[in-house]
Amino acid sequence: MALIIKNVDWTSAKDKLTKLREKVFVYEWRIPKEVEFDRQDTAAYHILLLDEAGAEIATGRLTPEGEIGRIAVLNSCRKPEVYQQLFAALLAIAEQQGMQTVSVQCELEGVNYYQQQGFRPVGAVYMDAGIPRQRMSCSIKQFSLPKVEFTH
Q1: Residue 152 confidence (pLDDT)
Q2: Which SUPFAM superfamilies does the entry mention (predicted)?
């Protein structure tokens, strides 16, 4: 699957980012819309992944504090290579911004996966929108970042 990776800002891509996140988080996962969208969106770095036909299939964001989140992938596109490209693009931005560490807030079933990627739990498990989560952090030097080419 050939993917097109776009580094976009909230102002210019808000409609596309909102549509993807609503499909995944609000309609599929039933997370309240007022919880899904927050003031961090305007300051965050956003990635938009398109398939070879140019359709938007995934998005994710990196906050200025280095938190990777709001990873939304359409159900029909949830393949390892989509997640890998999305994550690599967000890590490339973190590296470009001179960030030393990145963090994620994952569901409990994702803890083992993130630990295999070099992340370590930070703090206690907490509830977010009715879902138990764990904050995890990792030095950016832990990653072997694949080359990512952004399309504008």
Answers
A1: 59
A2: Acyl-CoA N-acyltransferases (Nat) (SSF55729)
Instruction: Return the closest-CA partner of residue 88 out of 20, 5, 2.
Output: 5
Return all residues near 151 (Cβ < 8 A) that are at least 6 apart: 4, 5, 6
Half-sphere exposure of 35 (CA within 13 A, CB side): 11
Backbone angles phi, psi at 25, to 5 degrees: -85, -45
Owning domain of residue 107: 4-151
CATH number at 85 reads: 3.40.630.30
Question: Which residue, 132, 133, 101, 107, is CA-closest to 119?
Answer: 101
pLDDT digit string, tens, across residues 43-88: 999 999 999 999 999 999 999 999 999 999 999 999 988 988 998 8
